[in-house]
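Contributing new complexes? Match this layout with glutamic acid.
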Amino acid sequence: MKYSLVDIVRSQVEKASGYLKVPAHVLKILKCPMRTLKVTFPVELDNKVVECFHGYRCQYNNALGPTKGGVRYHPEVNEEEVVGLAALMTWKCALLDLPYGGAKGGVICDPTKLSEKELEKMTRRYTAEIMPVLGPQKDIPAPDVFTTSKTMAWMMDTYSIFIGHAEPAIVTGKPEVLGGSKGRKAATGKGVAICTRELYSKLGKSLKGATVAVQGFGNVGSHAALFLQEMGAKIIAISDSTCGFIDEKGLPIIDIMNTCNENNKYLIEYKKLKACDKNDILSHEVDILIPAALENQIRADNVNEVKAKIISEGANGPTTPEADGVLEKNRVDVIPDILANAGGVVVSHLEWVQALSGLYWEAEEVNTHMERSMVRAFNKVWEKSREVSVSLRTAAYIVAIERIAEVYKYRGLFP
Ligand code: GLU
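Output block (do not edit by hand):
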């Protein structure tokens, strides 16, 4: 069964609610998004035809601070997905002790079929349409699926033109020359690798020689593969939406990244290896599986084919609730999305702080801070899961939601 992302997230909250020590009204508030803006806007394409695009920006909850979250360009973007992703951002920011609530945006489009000029026009008009709810102290977008530092530069420029001065704190994930943080691009994948390493160490095992499969070879999947390889693991299977590659001796990750990721190309365009079916990756015999593509990938119908004993969720919402139950029964340790892929928003926070202060940091400072935050959050989740005897996912939800409830205790309700 295919779940909407908001269903997946609600059922995860439901599961954690039995262990939560929070007032009932907080759970009631957290069940629904605070605000979802839906926009429709015209863009003249290169062939002079005017196309209408539909987009969203959902701000799920802002109890902890301005809302934060990426913008996704994809043909399957829809309101329920954006709301689910914004809820995940809310838990993620709370779990990582960031001073942010959660948001997400998206435009329904196929960015692979749009020219650079069309993408720029669409981005600028989308930014103008959601402008009333944006602001460095209100809501701060970032990259997500099929959006990049270039997209963020267009968003920043558009916002800055409207308000009459350059405002680098309005988005994160910008190019470095515009005030983007060092280390931001690699941060999400690096965080996935750090969490996997921490879990291995808790289990008393070494990553040396551990075999890894990565589903999705965009920014997150490729960097997770790269850092796990640096930590001694062997990446033997990868895939994207076009095909997969398997090599038991280990794949040439850097060469594939140089050919594909640096040039916005799909894996099918890497000609040095024989391609296989992309669907072979999830079921391949490996120690660690990194789903780093889209939601709804590990489901009731394929979960029993998964051989890995550790899953580290680079993507948001890759596992359905039914599949989650089966994985728990099969004693598979799942590092949940809101922990595993939080490295990106942790460095986004550092980028926002740098933009607000005008003081820029070296890569080493950024990376040390990010690693410390990830390890601290991992330990909190691990300890909670042992204390309450629940999965890492349920433990992560308990820690995150209890923090938001604590804030409501002091802020109270208006009026
Ligand atoms: N889109 C990323 C995520 O899902 C990053 C969000 C951000 O940095 O604000 O975590």
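Reviewers usually confirm one structural detail per submission. For this one: The longest strand covers residues 50-61.
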